[in-house]
Design a protein that fits this description.
By secondary structure, the protein is an alpha+beta fold. About 15% of the residues lie in helices and about 25% in strands. The N and C termini lie far apart (about 40 Å).
């Protein structure tokens, strides 16, 4: 069966059919990679991947980053240190087997608190709850294009602090001293507006709202400008909601998308395995 690509929205996302990621020719992989570049996020349903299969497909995009430091450190399946577990399920000792629990995960870009964040992330569904836990994606190239000219001019070359204190679930990362002063919190400074290294398109690069800070501004001015910018994020014309099924694999361009997760019933089970492709250049 030939690989086919169908855009899910004009701003972000495409669904790919006709691909078995365990047995993927070079030409089919090239089509998938091209769709990822063009649409920023791609969905492939009905996959049957072992952890070895997931790693093999992930590594076709480049070297992998280790999992992020979350509320309980870095949680991976035994023997698979490059896979990160996202789950609310408890082990036999009552400890979570993964990170982020069952609550909402707010809009964010993965690991943007690093100087060189991962270029891509992919998430594979092993167990999903009957409802809830949907993942939303926002196209930050479209969000940037929607900015009024005067607002885009005000941004200029300003940089924003991407906080490393809290993860997207609101938990303090293991070993980090909590703070809510964005001027002193740990994290990296990146340009508010960046250029995608492959497409040349301009994109907003916000990371997440909590503890964000625009360098060089008074705190009140930074908060006001950030609030204004976030008003252009996750609008219906630049966002898409993915409703999970078991066997879904979603791959997103971490440089030009943000994503969030809906909460779900903590009495139900959700197990996802995630990888991230190492960044080649700093956002610029």
């Amino acid at each position: 069966m030939a690989v086919t690509v169908r855009a899910v929205t004009p701003a972000v996302g495409a669904e790919i059919s006709g691909a078995d990621l365990r047995h993927l020719s070079d030409s089919d992989f090239a089509a998938i990679e091209r769709a990822w570049t063009n649409h920023s996020m791609i969905l492939l349903r009905g996959q049957k991947l072992s952890d070895d299969d997931l790693l093999a497909f992930s590594r076709r995009f480049g070297a992998l980053d280790p999992p992020p430091n979350q509320e309980r450190g870095r949680i991976s399946p035994p023997g698979y240190p490059d896979i990160y577990v996202v789950s609310n399920v408890l082990d036999g000792k009552g400890d979570p087997i993964g990170a982020l629990g069952a609550g909402e995960a707010v809009w964010h870009t993965d690991m943007s608190y690093l100087d060189t964040p991962p270029d891509a992330s992919m998430l594979y569904s092993l167990e999903i709850p009957p409802s809830g836990g949907n993942t939303w994606f926002c196209g930050m190239q479209a969000a940037c294009a929607a900015l009024p000219d005067d607002l885009r001019a005000r941004l200029g070359t300003r940089r924003v602090k991407h906080d490393g204190t809290y993860n997207s679930g609101g938990y303090v990362r293991q070993g980090v001293t909590p703070t809510d002063d964005p001027r002193t919190s740990p994290g990296a400074l990146h340009p508010l507006v960046c250029t995608h290294p492959d497409t040349g398109r301009r994109m907003l690069y916000l990371g997440r709202r909590r503890n964000a800070y625009i360098a060089g501004l008074e705190l009140a001015a930074s908060e006001a400008l950030l609030d204004e910018l976030w008003g252009y994020v996750a609008q219906p014309d630049v966002a898409w909601e993915h409703v999970w099924r078991v066997g879904d694999l979603v791959l997103w361009d971490n440089r030009c998308t943000m994503h969030r997760r809906d909460a779900f019933d903590p009495g139900t089970r959700r197990i996802m395995h995630r990888t991230q492709v190492k960044g080649e250049t700093r956002p610029a």
